Amino acid sequence: MHWIALQPLPDASTAPTGSPTEVLSDPLVALGWWALQYTPKVAQVEGALVLEVSASERLWGGAAALCRHIYTQKKPVAQVQYARGATSLIAIARLGSAAKPRTPPDDLPLHTLLAAGPHLGTLEKIGCTQWGQLRALPRGGVVRRFGAPLLDALDRAYGLKPEVYPWLVLPEVFEAQLELSAQVETAPALLFGASRLLKQLQLWLQLRHRGVLALALQWTMDARRNTATQGELLLRTAEPTGDIDHLQRLLAENLARVTLPGQSESLLPDEQIKGDSLHQMLERLSARLGAPDVLQYQAQADHRPEHMQCWSPALNAMQLVASCVVNTGAGSLKGIKNTSSPHSATPGARSNPAQPMPSEAALHPTWLLPTPLKLALRDQQPLYHGPLTLVAGPHRVESGWWVQGECALRDYFLARSEHMGLLWIYRDRLMGQGEGAEAGVAADWYLQGVFA
Fold first, then answer.
1. Which of the pair, 186 or 135, is modelled with greater confidence?
2. Is the domain of 191 the same as that of 316?
């Protein structure tokens, strides 16, 4: 039999940079997983690991070559001490003593035999301080005075009885936990802790010779939060993969779209976290995205839809708030003519003649086209991906007469398309005529808006 004992040093909780299992949550478990690549017989004994490597030596080119691999390969922890022995207890004793690596078992200090720990005071009084001295005592007297477990441990240490351990086995399903050292307010900040868990997952995949098809990242927040304290992000891959860098990039992309809910509750008003004010938020967004990309709406005194509003950089949030108050207050805009037509029938309407639409109930679309799109006609009926059915209208607009070449004389209608949904179209009215159709001239139809 050939045993190797490994033990992380107390100050060796982290691995060197670049280690495949860098910064794991439990160094001893991680070291045990790492050791499984050399032998399936790995066990934890009193804060140390023991490896029975007799059956693995030939696969690695002999005992010396196997030990060289174990001693020189990167490990989950930065500093590890080693010892070898014919039994696991001899290897552990050499590991915990200042004796030379090849100290004979009889010369090993008695305190390195774990079962002798409760009886060290009595044994020292009778001059028994080494394994050989304890072994030389009468067996019957040792059993009567100290009990059978001490003698059984001594027999196992000298190879007279078999050593039986619960061998370390990799779980069928990988599951690991990590407690973060600092409070997390944003989902991307979870990536730092998740990357540590991914390192453990990488080691598990390598030892199981498997790849990832799906993984779930779950988090539990502070119980004082005023909303849900738990969350989960599920990732799936198109094919089994062990590329942890790819999984980390995929996790980062998905975490960037996750918002952690809630804030911590407190009974003290001074500790309650409040959000940014409007002008602070606009200033931050303008600095991050650029002033031309953060705009504020300003209403214009014009009933032509394309001129009813303008957008300017939202550099001054207070002006934005003031303009919103003014524009939404009671009062009317002057100098604009806005009337509704009493006519309800429209040439070319297939069915359900449109009803008159009063100006105060005019429906404006969600999206306006940059430039109105002229529609084709069939029997004076507007077409757009098929015939259009007028639902409501007309809503008459007469505006822009004070601007040369921009006078708008239009009748707006709400129209339905079988393929495109609700649309906002208008019919041009000819200058100087009440109705283009009555004058024998076909009016042009345009598409200007789309209802989302």
1. 135
2. no
For tokens 């214009």, the residue is 300
Instruction: Determine which of 87-91, 304-308, 336-340 has the lowest per-residue pLDDT on average.
Output: 336-340
pLDDT of the residue at 269: 57
Distance CA 391, CA 370 (A): 24
User: If pLDDT is split at 50, 70 and 90, which confidence band does 128 have?
Assistant: very high
Q: Which of 288, 307, 328 is the C-terminal boundary of a domain? A: 328
Q: How many domains are contained in the chain? A: 4
Tell me: do 143 and 240 sit in the same domain.
no
Is 167 part of a structural domain of the chain? no
The residues, ordered by sequence, that sit 6+ positions from 49 with a Cβ below 8 Å of its Cβ are: 5, 6, 7, 28, 31, 32, 35, 42, 43
CA separation for the pair 58, 326 (Å, rounded): 88
Cβ atoms of 308 and 336 within 8 Å: the answer is no
* pLDDT 10s digits, 169-211: 888 888 888 888 777 778 888 888 888 888 888 888 888 888 9
Coil, strand or helix at 198: helix
Q: β-strands 367-374, 376-378: how paired?
A: unpaired
Distance from C-alpha of 131 to C-alpha of 92, rounded to nearest angstrom: 13
* 398: amino acid identity, one letter: E
User: Residue 352 carries which DSSP code?
Assistant: S
